[in-house]
Target: ANTAR domain-containing protein
Amino acid sequence: MLGAHEQRSEVARLLSQISAEYEAAHRGLAGLAYGMSQHEFITARMENMGQLHTQLQSIVGDVAIAMIADCLNAVHS
Model:
């Protein structure tokens, strides 16, 4: 079981990783690859975000999705 400090660190790591996956998917929309390879790249990023969300939810519960929304809103601010 993680202590409070380790949980905060793990939450911060997961949110950072989710943000990085989101940014990569967003860049994939404007990338040089078109068609199926572009779709596969973006799909992989979104699937990774889903797995990270599941991990985050196991630590913080249902508030995980709100934390992700706040994190991604900050990316576009």
Observations:
- Residues 4-75 form one domain.
